[in-house]
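Please check this one:

***
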Amino acid sequence: GMEEHLRYAHAVRGILKLSYKLLVNDKPKFSALLVGITFAVFLMITMTSLFAGVLRRASSTVVNVGASVWVMDPAVQTVANTIGMPDYVLDAVRSVDGVHYAVPLYTGGALVKLTDGTFQAVNVLGLDDTSLLGRPPLLEGEINDIYGENAFLVVKDTEFPKMGNPRVGTEFEVNDHRGVIVGIATVDSSGLFGVPTLYTTYQRAQQYLPNPRFTISYVLVEPRSPADVAGIKRAVAALGYMALTKEEFEAKISKFYEFRTGFGVNLLIMTIMSFVVGLSISGQTFYTFVLENIEKFGALKAMGAKSHELIVMILFQASFTAFTGLGLGIGLCALTITLARMALPDYAAVITGWNLGLAFVMVLIIAAASSYFGVRRVLQIEPFDIFRG
């Protein structure tokens, strides 16, 4: 009953204490184990967090504008390469059942001539004149000034200095038109392509920028209710265009960067490599650690330690090192990203839940694999072989 239970708990505590001492006493082996796992975790999280960061940046326009449903040409792959739609699409979408409102969004690149005579590529977003849907929160200036002559907002993100750190009132030229900064905005997510972002009204973007025949890049739709989305998608498809929810559009952009550019595959290969390196280093080191302590395990067996107690010891040793390595690896990665951000404000990496989860699973596999071989070896011991000496 109770006494037995206590005795058992006491025995387990004794076993764990013993296995911990065995492990930590062999400092060189223990350090080698830790270093192997730490670096595998570090490499893997660094790769996947860079990947996550770039994917987040790639759909920054979608995140920042924040519309629920986006209507676009079916050939659009990412938010950056837009394909213009004729004006009738906007009217047609507005008349679809279930659409609460629909507004145009212009997005395109332009070359801006700064006051010092240098040219700078920018990304321009033209917001619907009546609703200004997708407007960014302002740090300085008044949102209504965007209606003034030549008015533009500039986003204060990592690319802001490339516009010459403008202030409210700074002038520039775009396509032989005068432009004036009337507000400084902030956004949730910086862009990926390293160019400053300007906002203006849809009409002004149309007038000022050299444009193809069609200027509607996207139609932003707010459905009456989430239930209406499916019907809106069907109606838009019947027009020959494509409607995607914000989440679907972000997923499509991510997929493009994962599979259509060499980027995703390269990172995948590097992640697998770091996993294999970690697995082989830790597995081998742990196995030699078990071999070197084989006499101690044998002595325990001769003294009457049961097989399951030896298994508990080895599992404890493997998982203790694996999770210590996991913690160190994550810490190292967070430190590196912090330092990299201080040096390069553009550094895109973000540590997300899924890459921590991935590292956790990887470390579990490493611990399981190394314990498996260790356990197999220890169970083969014949105690009297050891004392025959």
